[in-house]
Amino acid sequence: MNVFRLAGDMMHLLSIVVLLLKITGIKSCRGISLKTQELYLLVFITRYLDIFTNFVSLYNTVMKLVFLGTSSAIVYYMRYDRIIKLTYDKEQDTFKYLLLVAPSAVLALATSHVYTVLEVLWTFSIYLEAVAIMPQLVLLQRTQNIDNLTGNYVFLLGSYRGLYILNWIYRFFTEKHYRQWLVWTCGVVQTIIYCDFFYYYFLSWQNNEKLALPA
Amino acid sequence: AEDEDEKDEL
């Protein structure tokens, strides 16, 4: 494991901690897309089905369990917590799941390396993760007064993706048998989706103004 | 088999 990969994972973990702090600390999920959170839960479930059959390291197994646990908790809080669910912007969070899930499923079926249930679902999770942030970005555009925690959550998530690209570049040059075109392509697409957000995030940071995304 | 050892990322 290289430093970019570790830093990327830590950013990912930190993004989830920030989100959980916001949700449980101030008892509000305002500005957070439940659709994106449910898509991430689906991504983790379909990707980590091999959790008990394909042991890589204790680190990997623990992280997988943490991601599954925390994303389940976030979805639970947003859907069922008596107080928190009242702060969910349901009317604004209108992105259609099918628009992201259906193409990911078709692409997974068309391009899977091997046709086993685990492999097709793993491929599906790669495609779906690339686009799962879109409902969140659309919701951010519609949210007036984006709070710091929400802005930082999306920023940390985008940083995680950027660091994974550095990790792949590093691995490409240091490991002979590391060639994952599908993962790389999806990863780059996913990172490009964040570009617009990053631009406005840095602009607000530089000008010391509140983050706002133009519609 | 080529793919097996490559699924070491999260």
Automatic annotation (TrEMBL), chain A:
Instruction: Report membrane topology.
Output: Multi-pass membrane protein
Entry keyword Transmembrane: yes
**What Pfam family is a match for this entry?**
ER_lumen_recept
Sorted UniProt keywords: Endoplasmic reticulum, ER-Golgi transport, Membrane, Protein transport, Receptor, Transmembrane, Transmembrane helix, Transport
PROSITE patterns assigned to the protein according to its UniProt record, in alphabetical order: ER_LUMEN_RECEPTOR_1 (PS00951), ER_LUMEN_RECEPTOR_2 (PS00952)
Chief location bin: endoplasmic reticulum
GO BP, one annotated term: protein transport
Parts of the chain that traverse the membrane: 55-77, 97-115, 121-140, 152-170, 182-202
Q: Does Transcription regulation show up as a keyword for this record?
A: no
State the compartments where it is located: Endoplasmic reticulum membrane
Instruction: Give GO terms: molecular function aspect only.
Output: ER retention sequence binding
Q: Name one GO cellular component term.
A: endoplasmic reticulum membrane
Recorded hits in InterPro entries, A to Z, give: ER_ret_rcpt
Q: Which PANTHER family match?
A: ER LUMEN PROTEIN RETAINING RECEPTOR
Q: Which family does the record assign?
A: Belongs to the ERD2 family.
Protein name per its UniProtKB record? ER lumen protein-retaining receptor
Q: What is the lineage of its organism?
A: Eukaryota, Viridiplantae, Chlorophyta, core chlorophytes, Chlorophyceae
